[in-house]
Amino acid sequence: MEKRRRKRMSLNDRERFIMHMVTVMTLSTMGDTIDVKKIQEEIRSGRCRRLTDKEVFEIWEDLKEEVLNGRAVYEEMVAKLSRDNDLFKAFDDGFGI
Question: Structural domain boundaries of the chain?
Fold first, then answer.
């Protein structure tokens, strides 16, 4: 039987942390009660071991700032979606969504 080589992850620890935290943020908007500090600890110990406390703090602060600063963009997008539900049809071409 041929051994299969495991493909190296293309995401670094910082990118993985951001992806997981965005997922947590999304889940929290759906009504799930989330202990952010606990989730950060679990993600860091399980998936992003190389990040320092300082890096985790900086990433989290940057994510919060970006969410707050980007709020107007999302509100505008949602308003447009209610008027034009064809906005995302272009993603179907070639992406298989």
Answer: 13-87
